[in-house]
Amino acid sequence: MFKILRDLLRYNIEFAIGFVLTLAIFLFALAHFWAPLPDNAIYLLPPDMPPSAQYWFGTTSRGQDVLWQMSSAIWNTMLFGLSVTILSRLLAVAVGMISGYLGGKWDEFLMTINDTMIALPNIPILLLVYFVMRDQMSWPVLALTAALLGWNYDARLIRSVTLSLRNREFTRHAVFAGMSVPQILVRQHLPYVMPVIFFTAMNNLIWAIGLEVTLSVLGFSDINRPTIGGMIYWANQHQAIIAGIWWWIAFPIIAVVLLFLGLFLLAISVNEYIDPRSRLSRMGA
């Protein structure tokens, strides 16, 4: 793992830039644990103060320090994205590998479910869940719903890799050695699937963060929990642009753009690393 990271940092400038951007944003988000005030406290500071030596990113109309609000918001947004990504990867790996290896009726059954999920529109379903469970809508419920909608495309990709491994010589040897299906999938096939999992995880993380920002900006989430989308939502509610409080909405937008850029560069870099021809060309072979 560390060798791969070293090679990517050494030979791939996009990965290096993406890594630095993402790490910087992560460290900034980590700082919220040392915030001087609770992240949900309001009207404790002078409102609408522009950026200054005392308040680096200014304050909001709700009497909150934009700097510390952003730190907490980025942390919660990234945590949401990671939760969705991990849950959806578990589903994608389980469905894709079982379907690809077992084939037959299992493949037909699982791929029917998978294709049905692909056909469903994500945003309308999430909005429906919000309106049905408005009083019970919480961050975990939203993350679980997003995860249930975010695994299907990647399951097909993982299935195709597993299909190519099913008839390989080492798979036959594992069967003759008496290994069970779970043992074959975990010990023999999973190492070959891991690069695909990493690549799809990066894409899914970008999707999940974008989904959270979109839903929160529209108010279809727990807006009392600080997130990037939640900050933009409250800025719009207080008409920050019209009132000239540009820093309230500008800094969160800059942060999410930098986060997207960092994750995107990491995703395309990992994708290139998976392709042996791209990797060798970058290393000058």
From TrEMBL:
Q: Where in the cell is it found?
A: Cell membrane
Specify the superkingdom: Bacteria
Keyword set, alphabetical order: Membrane, Transmembrane, Transmembrane helix, Transport
- Cite the InterPro entries for this sequence: MetI-like, MetI-like_sf
Q: PROSITE patterns given for it?
A: ABC_TM1 (PS50928)
Q: What membrane topology does this protein have?
A: Multi-pass membrane protein
Q: Which residues form the signal peptide?
A: none
Q: Residue ranges of the ABC transmembrane type-1 domain?
A: 74-267
One Pfam family from the record:
BPD_transp_1
Entry's Gene Ontology BP terms: transmembrane transport
Q: Which SUPFAM superfamilies match?
A: MetI-like
Family note? Belongs to the binding-protein-dependent transport system permease family.
Q: What is this protein called?
A: Peptide ABC transporter
Q: Which organism encodes this protein?
A: Devosia riboflavina
